[in-house]
Specification:
This protein has 107 residues and is α/β, with parallel strands linked by helices. It has a single domain (4-106), classed as HesB-like domain (Hypothetical Protein Aq_1857, Chain: A, Sandwich), CATH 2.60.300.12. The chain has two helices and nine strands, in the order E-H-E-E-E-E-H-E-E-E-E. It has helices at residues 7-20, 66-72, and strands at 4-5, 25-33, 37-45, 53-57, 60-64, 76-82, 85-91, 97-98, 105-106. The mean pLDDT is 89.
């Protein structure tokens, strides 16, 4: 399996990296938090670690540490705009439940 990006997410990352002037791609991970257990962590990848799994979709590299990959493998990352709000959305096939606020999930 892999991590996938929609065209919208890839375009957003590409635009942001160009505006910053630096970055190898997107770093995606999880951290323990919230009422359901885990939350997504999204950053720009400035370097690749030897243990990272690296995926490429729509010309954007996605870097994921091995512990996070166990929880998010197969996830599709989208970028959506709703009115004045913009955010990455995650379609994770491993999720068994989410908190009411949508900020955390469990597997």
């Amino acid at each position: 399996m892999a991590i996938h990006l929609t065209q919208s997410a890839a375009d957003r990352v590409r635009h942001s990296i160009a505006a910053r002037g630096t970055g190898l791609g997107l770093r995606l991970g999880v951290r323990k938090t919230g009422c359901s257990g885990f939350a997504y962590v999204v950053n720009f990848a400035e370097e690749s670690n030897a243990t990272d799994a690296v995926f490429e979709d729509h010309g954007i590299k996605v870097f994921v540490d091995p512990d996070s990959l166990k929880l998010i493998e197969g996830t599709t990352v989208d970028f959506v705009k709703q009115g004045l709000n913009e955010a990455f959305r995650f379609h994770n096939p491993n999720i068994k439940g989410e908190c009411g606020c949508g900020e955390s999930f469990n597997v």
